[in-house]
Amino acid sequence: MSEKVMAEILPTDSKYKRAGKITINAPAAEIFELVANPRNHALFDGSGTLRGNVRGPERLELGSKFGMDMHIFANYRIKNTVVEFEEGQTIAWCHPGHHRWRYELEAVDPHTTVVVETFDGSTARIPAALKLMNAYDNNQKAILKTLVRLKEVAENPPAPE
Hints:
It is a single chain. The protein is 25% helix and 39% strand. By secondary structure, the chain is an alpha+beta fold. The chain has a single domain (8-155), classed as Alpha-D-Glucose-1,6-Bisphosphate, Chain A, domain 4. It has an eight-stranded antiparallel β-sheet, with helices on one face. A hairpin with a 2-residue loop joins strand 7 (100-109) and strand 8. It starts with 7 loop residues before the first strand and ends in a 6-residue tail after the last helix.
């Protein structure tokens, strides 16, 4: 019987942040390419809210704007802006609410990478409003699912056609 893969909850320095980490058996550069292409996000999204229809560049960089269809209680479209970017290591984006999602990658060796995903509500226009929406608990669960899915996608890339 195979062991169930799980991401680890990380403590944060703020009641408005949630984070998780996982070790992925793939090079950091390959994982970063997955995350830096918004068309891949639906492949590893653990929130169940992404509906696709991505608009924007195929490869994100600092200042890039991209949008996608979402669904939480109702369908809507969200526009994001990349607000942090360090090639191969860190990428973060926020939408008009100003809370952000961040991925940090640390190469352990050429074929192993630790990935930390953080939902940061401390940057939101009204962090307490996110609590009313249960965003902190919901995003903690989504982070753990997303990291497990990212591991699966990164470790099992599709065969070239």
